[in-house]
Design brief:
451 residues; alpha+beta; Uridine Diphospho-n-acetylenolpyruvylglucosamine Reductase, domain 2; Uridine Diphospho-n-acetylenolpyruvylglucosamine Reductase, domain 3; Alpha-Beta Plaits; 5 domains; 7-stranded antiparallel β-sheet; 5-stranded antiparallel β-sheet; 18 strands; binds flavin-adenine dinucleotide
Length: 451
């Protein structure tokens, strides 16, 4: 593979860390394949020599998914970056796994279609598929789970399979597509993904509104959904995060719990949607409902939302951010966020809260002094109490960031007996535990087989 295989310390360090708080772990080698066939050969060789394989997309994940905790070969996907086929009439596209979401949208813009799933970072489609990612648009357009039609995967034995076709629905057999969506590279290396696309709306309007409390803001979000307003985005930013966004993104908005909305549709339709929501917001004490119709203003506001993590970091220079992620049924969201905020304050931690509240999903961004073990301990305790609260509310320990190494302990509490079936599936597809070992599931379940 020439210079597409490297064992230099520089390359190994470059691919040893994601955007999480977990310390780096270096792989033994990094390879940059250019084809599915090459990946199949690499995986077959690794399998023969019992060497772990770690697929690497853009490295933006937040739970340590790409750390080489058992060493091994990092398969770096950036050279698999071709948009292979756009089917305008069927509104779908097939891409190589290393294509990033922004690259995809920029390459298909002229077709009048777009791909809506938008995690805050410019992640790869392979990484997003593998973490079952979502983002601000998911309340209307769904997550990766709803938008992936088919994947091509190199399995641990080097064989290549496809899991579906391009049909909009299918009742054929077990749903293997959904098995690989969210598998975090533990079942195979995804080489190609076929995705649903959506029409770029005729009109888009953005509105923001501040509220007297988080409860009022969340109630507005819940009522908006219950009224059947087909809102495209509803994002919550809490008071401290709003201060951070004002400073970092040069906004001048009230320091209060704030909802960002986006409406898609016809020109008349978006106005009607926004007016309905304005009425709901006013009824809940929402103030200064402000519309942003100009493209530059809208882009600026959404960029501010996407930059929330970096804005929070700027609140505490030198701090490390730990962004956790949970999801509850929307009816429990206000209570869950309020209890979590109270816990943060009682524990004297510094943390902001942001959320894709239309889905019941929110993140706590802890700002931790890396030299202070006490701050790390406090954050871990708050996180633990929050996840226990969420699971008691029939929610989940991860709405979108995945499990990686950070949340493995919670799968048992969330799934009980079903966790054994996950281990069995993993063992069937990867009997030597070589595909991203130690992620999602503990390695020691079938550990005797790791070299
Ligand atoms: C500022 C910021 C904001 C974010 N906001 C969001 C958000 O709103 N929503 C959200 O869901 N996430 C968010 N994230 C997290 C992150 O962007 C997502 O988890 C994303 O899906 C990771 O994609 P990636 O290409 O970076 O994958 P990586 O980090 O490289 O890998 C993630 C996992 O997928 C596996 N993997 C990667 N490529 C493949 C492949 N081809 N085949 C098999 N396995 C593979 C890896 O082994 C790893 O387990 C955010 C991150 C940051 C830094």
């Amino acid at each position: 593979m020439g210079d597409r295989l490297s064992t230099s310390e520089g390359s190994r360090l470059q691919f040893s860390q994601d955007e999480s708080y977990h310390p780096p772990k270096t792989p033994d080698a990094v390879v940059r394949p250019v084809s599915e066939q090459e990946i199949s050969k690499i995986v077959s060789l690794c399998s023969r020599y019992r060497t772990p394989i770690i697929p690497f997309g853009a490295g933006t994940s937040l739970e340590g998914g790409i750390l080489a905790i058992h060493g091994g070969v990092c398969i770096e996907m950036s050279a698999m970056n071709q948009v292979l086929r756009v089917n305008g009439e069927d509104q779908d596209v097939t891409v190589q796994a290393g294509v990033t979401r922004m690259q995809l949208n920029s390459q298909i813009r002229e077709t009048g279609l777009f791909f809506p799933v938008d995690p805050g970072a410019d992640a790869t489609i392979g990484g997003m598929t593998s973490t079952r990612a979502s983002g601000t648009n998911s309340v209307r357009y769904g997550t990766m789970r709803e938008n992936v039609l088919n994947v091509r995967v190199v399995l641990a034995n080097g064989k290549v399979i496809k899991t579906g076709g391009r049909a909009r629905k299918s009742a054929a057999g077990y749903d293997l597509t959904r098995l690989f969506v969210g598998a975090e590279g533990t079942l195979g290396v995804i080489t190609e993904v076929t995705l649903r696309l959506h029409g770029i709306p005729e009109a888009t309007t953005v509105a923001i509104c501040s509220f007297p409390s988080v409860r009022a803001a969340v109630s507005c979000s819940v009522s908006t959904i219950q009224y059947g307003v087909p809102v495209a985005r509803i994002e919550l930013i809490d008071k401290l995060q709003m201060r951070a966004c004002n400073n970092y993104s040069f906004l001048n908005l009230p320091e209060a719990p704030t909802l960002f909305f986006e409406f898609h549709g016809s020109t008349a339709g978006v106005r009607e949607q926004a007016e309905t929501v304005e009425g709901i917001a006013k009824g809940l004490g929402g103030e200064s409902f402000k519309w942003a119709e100009k493209t530059e203003e809208r882009t600026h506001l959404w960029q501010a939302r996407h930059d929330a993590l970096y804005a929070a970091l700027a609140l505490k220079p030198g701090a490390q951010a730990w962004s956790t992620d949970v999801c509850v049924p929307v009816s429990r969201l206000a209570e869950c966020i309020e209890d979590t905020r109270l816990d943060i304050e009682k524990s004297r931690a510094t943390a902001t809260i942001v959320g894709h509240v239309g889905d019941g999903n929110f993140h706590v961004i802890f700002l931790i002094d890396p030299k202070c073990p006490e701050e790390q301990k406090i954050a871990r305790q708050i996180n633990h109490r929050m996840i226990s609260r969420v699971i008691a509310m029939e929610g989940t320990c991860s709405g979108e960031h995945g499990i990686g190494i950070g949340k493995k302990d919670y799968l048992d509490i969330e799934f009980g007996e079903a966790l054994g079936i996950m281990h069995d599936l993993k063992h069937t597809l990867d009997p030597c535990n070589l595909m991203n070992p130690g992620k999602v599931l503990d390695s020691d379940y079938y550990s005797s087989q790791i070299s």
